[in-house]
Amino acid sequence: MEKKFQSLSVPRRVLLGPGPSNVPPEVLQAMALPVIGHLDPAFLAIMEEVQAMLRTVFATTNRFTIPISATGSAGMEAALVNAIERGDKALVCVNGVFGVRMCDIVERAGGELKKIEAEWGTPFQPDQVRDALKNFPAAIVAIVHAETSTGVLQPLEEISRIVHDHGALFVVDAVTSLGGTPVNVDDRKIDVCYSGTQKCLSCPPGLSPITFSDSAIEKLKSRTSKVQSWYLDMTMIEKYWGPERVYHHTAPISMIYALREALRLALDEGLESRFDRHRRLSAQLIDGLEKMGLEMLVDRKYRTPMLNAVKIPCGVDEAVLRKRLLERYGIEIGAGLGPLKGKIWRIGLMGHSCAEENISLILSALKSLL
Predict the structure, then answer these.
(1) Would you tell me how many other CB atoms lie within 10 Å of the CB of residue 39?
(2) Could you report the per-residue pLDDT of 65-76, keeping only the tens digit for each?
């Protein structure tokens, strides 16, 4: 007998993990608007608005600033496979899961990889990059701004200067940081910067904002071989998002609506106010955790304001506690990854989820369960 399915229903959750974050009602409502054609003049106008707002959030004047029609991981892949030709030297900074993924993509793209490492939970020092480039003339240097697996916020200014002094392109992962802390693409002279929609922008997962500097576009146009990925080849996608409007793929219409509204909300709040909210409420959460006797993984100077790595107390079964948080309180937090598996919880305060009532809720729930 054929099974009959009921209409879809999902539980309400308070999303305080490493992403996604809770989505504002205005963004959900935007996704319910009628779907129109991806070349409809009304949709093309929305695309232009999205590009303009993304430039403001990235703090850049880069002409080529778009949302890729895929999640943040595709942004990582697009950044690297477009910037690297077979045989290009690539220096990747690894202090967490997402640096490891960058290394994998570099090798798949045929790049000559050199990785430098810092202990998970600590940032890179500029001298590490300077020393590596002395003996390895890289074409690109890639680093994670806010490492989601550890909660480290990487200072970028001095490293950017070193990278450009050596004639390399600077590629930065801002998946977790965009919209929650300043990324400042132009001031930091970042050549390729990518992010995701589901973290501090509080839009559902499914798009990856990315921006290319003029230098990165020049490198792209001077390639002697095709980009490894057809779908992520920015030389073709640029023609759809640019004035030519050449068909490449059918854009995810409803997701573009959602991103447009999420960006509008961020800009209506004001970026500085938004950054201050993340800093202020992160400090409030950490103060409450420390009063409970819990310790943070990352030194105060290098903590991300949107992702807090908390050491698990001795004798606590971290998986059981996360399960009870979800079942009893409807709260999701994240587990540790890689060498930090079983050693930390990752508590996110991202975008719409970064709210005082959520801090009170998670602190009360943890106190009760611990």
Answers:
(1) 13
(2) 999 999 999 999
Written as one letter, the residue type at 5 is F
Distance, in Å, from the CA atom of 57 to the CA atom of 120, rounded to the nearest integer, reads 28
State how far the alpha carbon of 243 is from the alpha carbons of 46, 207, 238, in Å.
14, 21, 9
18-55 residue pLDDT tens: 999 999 999 999 999 999 999 999 999 999 999 999 99
For 291, the token pair is 């009063």
**Binning pLDDT at 50, 70 and 90, where does residue 4 land?**
confident
pLDDT in tens, 309-351: 999 999 999 999 999 999 999 999 999 999 999 999 999 999 9
Q: What's the topology of domain 14-19+270-369?
A: Aspartate Aminotransferase, domain 1 (3.90.1150)
The DSSP string of 169-228 is EEEEE-TTTTTTS---TTTTT-SEEE--SSSTT---SS-EEEEE-HHHHHHHHT-SS--S
Which residues of the chain are in CATH 3.40.640.10 domains?
A: 25-267
